[in-house]
Design brief:
The protein has 230 residues and is of the alpha/beta class. The protein has a single domain, classed as 3-Layer(aba) Sandwich (Rossmann fold), CATH 3.40.50.150. Helices cover 32% and strands 19% of the residues. It has helices at residues 23-36, 63-71, 84-97, 109-114, 145-154, 168-180, 210-217; strands at residues 52-57, 75-80, 102-105, 121-127, 155-165, 189-191, 223-229. Strand 2 (75-80), helix 3 (84-97) and strand 3 form a beta-alpha-beta unit. Helix 1 packs across helix 3 (84-97). It is globular, with a radius of gyration of 17 Å. The chain starts with 22 loop residues before the first helix and ends with a strand. The structure holds S-adenosylmethionine. Residues 12-13, 57-61, 80-83, 86, 108-110, 127-130, 142, 209-212 line the site of S-adenosylmethionine.
């Protein structure tokens, strides 16, 4: 089943803008963003000699995104984020580290997903998605079944989905949907954690984020998951 962006009308993010960009940030944006912008419909074969394509959804302040791009020069990473000031931080970080393997989508990741062919990504990161606590807002949660179906479609067999949250109710919500998910061919998600204690370990090759640090300061334990597409 493929995802119908037109019928999925619920907005999943909060603020799209914070303070106006500083003149320096605006200049850097004007000069570099056109070349960093992810063109919907691009595939791995359009990129210069990269082994894999990865996607980070809702990268916030881009701490994790920039770290992964720097640590893995042989992959190409796409980051999607509607919050202008977050995207501006990514633009700054790319310039500072002279990164060449990172593209940005300033907007809703569902538009990026809709342009990706089946089985095209090797990793997807969804770190601390907005929890939308109130029941009447649950329809705004990103990890609804339709979205999970779309992530499944674009991931390669054996590809990895990483998810983190500090909100236990959202963890339960997501795990139950991932566990229930099956395709007519018997496909689904393989859980890579056997013990609950492992959920508390971020693991290697997985740096922290700003939102996560805030959760820690406010006393909320964080949970980390890796699922493989089978
Ligand atoms: C709670 S923040 C976490 C940010 C970051 N991952 C971190 O851990 O610091 C959730 C982020 O997801 C973004 N987001 C929500 N819906 C999105 C969508 N449809 N496409 C892309 N990003 C989205 C929000 O704008 C927000 O920056």
């Amino acid at each position: 089943m493929s995802f119908d962006r037109a019928t999925d009308k619920f907005r999943t993010f909060g603020r799209a803008k914070g303070r106006p960009l500083s003149p320096q940030a605006q200049t850097l944006w004007d000069e570099t963003f056109p070349d960093l912008k992810w063109t919907i419909g691009t595939t791995l074969s359009d990129l210069e000699a990269k082994d894999e394509l990865w996607l980070e959804i809702g990268f916030g302040g881009a701490e994790h995104l920039l770290w992964q791009a720097e640590a893995h020069p042989d992959i190409h990473l796409v980051g999607a984020e509607p919050f202008l000031n977050g995207v501006s931080k990514a633009v700054r970080g790319i310039a500072d580290a002279s990164l060449k393997n990172l593209s940005l989508h300033h907007g809703d990741v569902r538009d990026v997903l809709a342009g990706l062919p089946d089985n095209s990504l090797s990793k997807i990161f969804v770190l601390f998605p907005d929890p939308w606590h109130k029941t009447r807002h649950h329809k705004r949660r990103l990890l609804r079944t339709e979205f999970i179906t779309e992530l499944y479609r674009v991931l390669k067999p054996g590809g990895e989905l990483r998810f983190a949250s500090d909100i236990i109710h959202y963890v339960d919500w997501t795990l139950s949907r991932l566990k229930r998910f099956t395709t007519p061919e018997g496909g689904g998600w393989t859980f890579t954690h056997s013990a609950v204690q492992e959920w508390r370990i971020r693991g290697e090759d997985w740096p922290g984020t700003r939102y996560e640090a805030k959760a820690g300061r406010e006393g909320r334990p964080c949970h980390y998951f890796k699922f493989l597409k089978h």
